[in-house]
Design a protein that fits this description.
single chain, 259 residues, alpha/beta, 6-stranded mixed sheet, 4-stranded mixed sheet, 11 helices, 10 strands
Amino acid sequence: MSEPLVLYTVSDRIATITLNRPEKKNALSAELVTQLTEIMLEASDDDDVKVIILKANGNVFSAGADLAYLQQLQNNTHEENLTDSRNLQKLFTTIYYLPKVVIAQVEGHAIAGGCGLATVCDIIFSVPDAKYGYTEVKLGFVPAIVSCFLLRKTSETVAKRILLTGELFTAQQALDFGLITFLAEKDEINDKVQEFSLNLCQQASANALMVTKQLIGQTTNPTLEKSLEIAVQINARVRESEDFKKGIASFLSKEPIQW
C-alpha cells in the first residue's frame, strides 16, 4: 500500500498538514492538489483545530508540477485544462479563505506552484537557505492564478520583477519583498512555528481570528474572484500555445532552449 500524499495530525489545537512526496520533491500532481484541498477543508471543519501548519517532508517544500503531470498537460483538451486550472484555483482559494490561520513552514526550496502554495498562506516561516521563484515564463507558461494573490502581498514592481524574469531569489529577498513573514534557522524553525501557533491558540479568540482574516481578504481584494476567473481562462489557454509545448518538451528532455 502506497504512502498517503498528504499527512494530517492534530495536537494542542494545532493541525499539521504535511506534503509527503519527498522522493518527488513534493511536486504538485493532480492527486496531491485534490488531497491537499480535501484535508484543508477537513481541518477547517475540525472543532479541535484552531491553527493550521503546512509543511513538507524531505529537503524541498515543493518543486512545482511533477514530470508526469507536465507530460499529461501536453495532451489535454481545452476543457481538461480548464478543469485542472480550476482545481488549482480551488486549492489556493481554499487556503486563502479558510476561516483558520494557515502557517507555512518552509524548510526547503519553493518553486513555481510550490512557491504559489506558500504565497497563499497567511504567515510564512522560512529557513534562510530556501530558494523561491516563479519560473513559469522559462517554460513558456504563465503563473496566472498565483499572480492574483502575489499582487496583494507585494508591489507591482516586485511582481513584475519576479514573474517576468522567472529568477530564483533568496529567503532574505522574499522577506524584503513582503512575500514571507519570518526567517528562522533550520534547527529552530519547528520550535518557533509551534510557539507562534500556540500563542495564537492561547491569546486570540478563534472567532476574532476568523473575522479578522475575512476582513483583510474582503477589504483588500474586492475584485479577487473576477481576477481569478480571468486567470483560470488564461492558464488554460496558454497551455495550448506552441511556446508552452516547446518549453515543456525542452524541460522533459533536459535540453536547453533558446527563445
